[in-house]
Amino acid sequence: MAVTAAVAAGCLVACGGDKPATDAKAELQIWVRKPPGSNTEKTDQQLAAAFTAKTGVPAKVTALFDDFETKLQQAAAQKKLPDIVINDTDRLGGLVKQGLVREVDRATLAGQADLTPSSWQAATGADGKIYGVPFSAQSFALFVRKDWREKLGLQTPKTWADMDALAKAFTAGDPDGNGKPDTYGYVIPASTKRGYTSWYFASLLWSAGGDFLTGADGKFTPAINNPQSLAAVQELTKQFCTDKSVVPGSVTAETTQAHPLFETGKGGIYLTGPYNMARFDKNLGKDKYEVVALPPGPGGKSVSLAEGENVYLMAGSANPDGQTRFAEYATSVDGQTLGMAGDTDGNVVRLPVNSKVDTAAVRKDTRWQLFAGIYQDGARYVPVVPDWTPFRQSAADTLNGLVADCAADPKTALDKLAQTFTDELTKQGAKA
Q: What family is this (predicted)?
């Protein structure tokens, strides 16, 4: 009931009081969260052009990156929402809460049975209804400077202790041989913006056996302050505060600032996604780094964050049939193959969600298979609550505070965060 009320209230703001007259020839306005002028934007443009060529429905792509969500809110306030938004899976709850997206009737969607069950999970709201169409999936792995590691005579890390030892060696051992103390171990996007700190931390948390929340059937209690979660936080703070093996300035770094730190030789270990491989191959050199799974943590497992993007059909569109047809094309074998962009850095489909796509036929780079295996072997999406954004942001604020202030007590901070989670669960009607 709370979700339904929020949708209705939000739609009054986003869509206006009256439904617009439908027009099957109306141009679809498609917003993508990509840097303007990037190769990924070019791929999105090609996807839209191919869709138009196939269906006759005109489409225009607008690439936005900085403050994407703020700009979307402004468009909603002005009652000028785009028809389609392609954005992160963990933004679903907030879009539903504000009534900015319409429900998807999966049964009537052409090709829906070809999409993987796990990808549909990431398009499903806390009320069990579907509010997006899966478009792309991804997992994360460690990118390690192989040339640095071999120069120092060290092995590929098999445990967290190995990983930390390698990071300390990269920090103190002059792996680039320039005689200057200007290299570090970890590259970490630890900014609070968009909740990056907790986004990065999720894989460490789950690999340590910890969790943000625990529960079932949409009812949760906080788990962020249990012993396993505390151990994961202590690992993160050790990297920053005790070992001092993290690139300086990481507490304010977003991903756009973190990527160059790896490819320019500031840091040698980076937990990131497959979309960076083509970029690093070009800017650093494929022979200088390796990609390996995150070693098992204290929980005995290696668990990657799973995420990706959905095609969101925005509320109030004058061309709802066109919205549906675009979603069907984007998830078809042709649309997914185009979006994968081969082995180039223009990929907007990281791991295809269409089970009929032959990944090996599209991509010759076998490193993609590592990420596919990590995704299939237990990668986890964030908990399905009505709106994940407040949890992600409050966790990021707490974690960022701990790595920025090494005198802070992790247990005290996590107990306070657990109470914040409890209050938010109560507010969202999701408390066990």
A: Belongs to the bacterial solute-binding protein 1 family.
- Distance, in Å, from the CA atom of 404 to the CA atom of 398, rounded to the nearest integer, reads 10
Q: pTM of the entire structure?
A: 0.90
Does pLDDT of 7 surpass 90?
Answer: no
Q: CA 219 to CA 422: how far, in whole Å?
A: 11
> Quick check: 309 and 86 in contact, CB under 8 A?
yes
Indicate the residue type of 282.
K
Secondary structure class of 279 (helix, strand, coil): helix
DSSP code for 37:
T
CA dihedral of residues 359, 363, 364, 370 (deg, nearest 10): -60
Phi, psi of 311 (to 5 degrees): -90, 115
- Rounded Cα distance between 225 and 212, Å, is 8
Alpha-carbon dihedral sign for residues 10, 63, 91, 248: negative
The pLDDT value given to residue 18: 53
- Assign 130 a pLDDT band (cuts: 50, 70, 90): very high
Closest by Cα among 348, 427, 405, 317 to 38: 348
Give the rounded distance of the alpha carbon of 76 from its chain centre.
Answer: 23
Burial class (CB in 10 A: 0-12, 13-18, 19+), 116: middle
Instruction: Give the distance from CA 249 to its chain's centroid.
Output: 22
